[in-house]
Amino acid sequence: MATTAQWISGARPRTLPNALSPVLVGTGATIGTGSTRPGLAALALVVAVSLVVGVNYANDYSDGLRGTDNDRLGPTRLVGSSAASPAAVRTAALVWLSLAALAGVALVALSGRWWLLGVGAICLAAAWFYTGGQRPYGYQGLGEVAVFVFFGPVAVLGTAYTQGRPPGAMPLIASIGVGMLSASVLVANNLRDISTDAAVGKRSLAVILGDTGTRRLYVVLVLTPLALSVITAPDHPTMLLALLATPLAWSPVRAVLSGAVGRRLIGVLGGTGVFMLAWSVGTAIGLALAKPV
After folding, report:
1. Model pTM?
2. Which of 170, 213, 287, 289 has the highest CB neighbour count under 10 A?
3. Gap between the Cα atoms of 71 and 211, Å rounded
4. CATH label, 8-289, candidates 2.60.120, 1.10.3470, 1.10.600, 1.10.10
């Protein structure tokens, strides 16, 4: 039977910035318009956190059944290590995804944005079929695309839309930055696992691009959001606040460019999440304070 510490590790807490960041940025955008609703922001956060934890357990379950996780570095693989039964991990995944669904329905009902129910259903399906089902899209090089879309534009703009008016150009640009940083977390993870994924037939984007291509992609995904902060600054100087996070990008980027492998990439994963969260906080504050000049 898995210990509490193993269940927490299996939830992969280093990926929680993927949940926190889009809600922060989306809420910052609504504060800038004067229409924020804290209760709905809290519900959006419950949805995002529950989805991230749910998809992590769902991946553990599906990858464990396929034998993909039998030889892995990083956080505990509950099924792959036999610390927990597949049924227990599947139940954990369904509980967290159900919590996301319930919070999502409440968010939609309170905001009146009923068409978002369809978006929520797609999000839940994407969470399960990332590594689940007969043809998981995460095994076809599409994982980073899905993470970009669902934890970038969908999560940021959805958070903003449920609290106020339809988002404008600034939140859209910010959502692209969040999506890229969310994808960079997965790229760092898959870079570490290229050899083991290739050995079991998992064609992640990292396997397709190879080691060098994946490292280049990682750097582009991490540094482009900083460029977006600069691009938006002429009309909204407060967006430059996000650049305060720049020093936090130095260590993970340097490690990736220097050819870090194995356990060194576990630190890259955590460092990427910290940078993502810091950039998102700066961006959220910048959006909240942004005024046309």
Report:
1. 0.92
2. 287
3. 19
4. 1.10.600
